[in-house]
Amino acid sequence: MYAVLLAFGVMVGPGVTPAHADLKLCNTTASRVGVSIGYKDTEGWASEGWWNIASHTCETLLKGVLIGRYYYIHAVDYDRGGEWAGGLFMCTDDKSFTIRDTQDCEKRGHKRTGFFEVDTGEERDWTVRLTDPEGEETKSQ
Questions:
Q1: Are 90 and 110 in contact (CB under 8 A)?
Q2: pLDDT of 95 above 60
Q3: Which of 20, 33, 57, 137 is most buried, judging by how many CB atoms fall within 10 Å of its CB?
Q4: Cα separations (Å) of 33 from 66, 68, 95, 128?
Q5: Do 49 and 37 contact (CB within 8 A), yes or no?
Q6: Tens digit of pLDDT for each residue in 66-84?
Q7: Do 138 and 5 meet the contact criterion of CB atoms below 8 Å apart?
Q8: How far is it, in rounded angstroms, from Cα 35 to Cα 67?
Q9: Does pLDDT of 7 surpass 60?
């Protein structure tokens, strides 16, 4: 079975204005997208979702100063199909969720979903931008 992996471009970079220290996601595509996030905090690994983000809008995924360097994103294009995904697997559900730990997703009644990594370096504020596809979609088996 084929899955669309990183079917759409992803641009990441420090937040434009450091007035608020947050992790934000901007949907610069023509579609509505659903977004989930994975991260490690003082209690261990967690995944949360779904943020429904309209075309050409931004949402804050995590408020406050970033405590980790690496964050993980999985997003779904509701209008055209496809997804932004990667090789780090975490647990998700179809409806709103907060799930602790990344192990045994299916055994615990969740889905096992691939997330892509966002390296924020030492920044305290970061914005991820999802972009429209350029040319052919990348497919992986």
A1: no
A2: yes
A3: 33
A4: 23, 25, 14, 13
A5: yes
A6: 888 999 999 999 999 999 9
A7: yes
A8: 20
A9: no
Partner residues linked to 140 by β-bridges: 3
pLDDT (0 to 100) of residue 19: 53
How do 22-27 and 126-130 pair as beta strands?
parallel
Q: Is the pLDDT of residue 42 over 60?
A: yes
CA distances (Å), origin 60, targets 42, 54, 110 = 20, 13, 25
Nearest-angstrom CA–CA distance, 53 and 59: 7
- This prediction has a pTM of 0.80
Within 10 angstroms of residue 138's Cβ, the number of other Cβ atoms is 12
Report percent pLDDT > 90 for the chain: 70
**Domain map of the chain by residue range?**
3-140
